[in-house]
Design a protein that fits this description.
elongated, conserved putative lor/sdh protein from methanococcus maripaludis s2 fold, 6 helices, alpha+beta, six-stranded antiparallel barrel, 4 domains, single chain, Elongation Factor Tu (Ef-tu), domain 3, 20 strands, 393 residues
């Protein structure tokens, strides 16, 4: 309460009258005092639509041919036993990389060592008999010249010598077979590759007729991939192959993650008439094991390069009722709908055959809210990305 009001109360003014004077004075000051707050200005037009943009650029664009395929081992071997016996050792571990000639399994060699010893003993016996028969033949021949032995005895002894020669040859064959069977007890890797999951544990009896085998070894460095493309692409592939090896890029199922890059090996020797496609085989070095047998991939075969092509991001191209179009941002930040013709599109970059010129700015995000003449507010990040490069920068 002010000092003037207190004085009025001391002079005997009624409280209600004093309060009325105060209220009147306050209301008057509010009505008479000009407002210092800034009044909101009415909007001058519709709000700007936020968008992202990109610049039409000229660059060299690879020409790709896409196909869906699967990875397969460059070489794959199912290791089976070639002799019957007990599997005594499996000296490698599952998943181990082995070289050609590395020991991977051992079958009990004792029965086959015994068979080899018996064959060698039989040969020694036949060798002794052959020496004796040959000596008898020499004696009979000498006696026959002096008429102390008949021609029949000489012929019989000659036949016995020939028989022993044949027996020794059979012994040599038996020894070779016994050695071969003994060597089959020590199974070595026929290729360089990766050991799979073993099918038989040590201690089990294995047979040469077992269909499942012991283990599988697959070569994955390098590795192969088979993919299919339409049969109409075969002439362009053949022409491109005459100029050299064609690069092939393997992508994951999302068609974005690059797994490896290799080269086309060869097309198949026949077209699949049921699907109208042809198989292509490519090889990849696969240094980081990003490709695995049985894996599905998206393959891109590069047939060549289109020089100085006009390009925009694929997301800038819209599908309309009368064809393809893009929204072009003008100098006054308004957009116009521009029909275009697309030469090729790899999912990330569209090659514009007709409708745009280098340097124009097109909308890449926010098209759903746009109409012809709409004013836009460009995202700062896309504005900097679409800005032309400064000389020497």
């Amino acid at each position: 309460m002010t000092e003037a009001a207190k004085k009025r109360l001391r002079k005997g003014w009624p409280l209600a009258l004093v309060l009325g004077v105060l209220m009147a004075a306050g209301l008057g000051s509010i009505l008479l005092e000009p407002s210092t707050a800034q009044q909101p200005q009415p909007p001058s037009g519709p709000p700007l639509v936020p968008v992202s943009i990109a610049r039409v650029t000229q660059q060299d664009v690879p020409i790709y041919l896409k196909g869906l395929g699967s990875v397969q081992a460059f070489n794959s071997v199912l290791v089976r036993a070639r002799v019957d016996g007990t599997l005594t050792e499996f000296p490698v571990t599952e998943g181990q990389e082995v070289k050609q000639g590395d020991l991977i399994a051992v079958i009990d060699p004792r029965p086959y060592q015994a068979a080899l010893d018996a064959a060698m003993a039989k040969k020694s016996q036949d060798d002794a008999d052959f020496v004796n028969s040959k000596s008898d033949l020499a004696r009979y021949t000498s006696l026959e010249q002096k008429s102390f032995a008949s021609h029949q005895q000489v012929d019989t002894q000659q036949a016995l010598v020939n028989h022993m020669i044949a027996a020794i040859a059979g012994d040599n064959a038996a020894i070779e077979m016994a050695k071969l069977n003994l060597s089959y007890c020590f199974i070595t890797s026929p290729i360089q590759g990766r050991v799979g999951l073993r099918q038989v544990d040590p201690g089990n009896l294995v047979h040469g007729s077992d269909a499942a085998g012991i283990v599988t070894i697959t070569q994955i460095h390098p590795i192969s991939a088979l993919f299919t493309v339409p049969q109409d692409s075969l002439p362009s592939i053949s022409v491109a192959m005459e100029k050299g090896k064609l690069p092939v890029i393997a992508f994951a199922a999302d068609d974005k993650t690059q797994l490896d890059q290799g080269a086309l090996l060869t097309p198949d020797n026949a077209i699949d008439s049921s699907t109208g496609t042809i198989k292509l085989k490519a090889t990849f070095p696969n240094p980081h094991n990003t490709l695995w047998p049985g894996q599905f991939i998206n393959a891109r075969l590069q047939l060549g390069t289109q020089q100085n092509a006009l390009t925009v991001p694929s997301v800038a191209v819209q599908h309309g009722p009368v064809g393809l179009y893009v929204y072009v941002v003008g100098p006054d930040q308004s957009v116009a709908r521009q029909p275009v013709e697309v030469g090729s599109d790899d999912g990330a970059l569209s090659v514009i055959a007709k409708g745009l010129t280098e340097g124009q700015q097109v909308v890449t995000e926010g098209q759903s809210r746009l109409q012809v003449g709409t004013k836009v507010a460009v995202n700062d990040a896309s504005q900097q990305a679409a800005a032309p490069a400064k000389p020497g920068g």
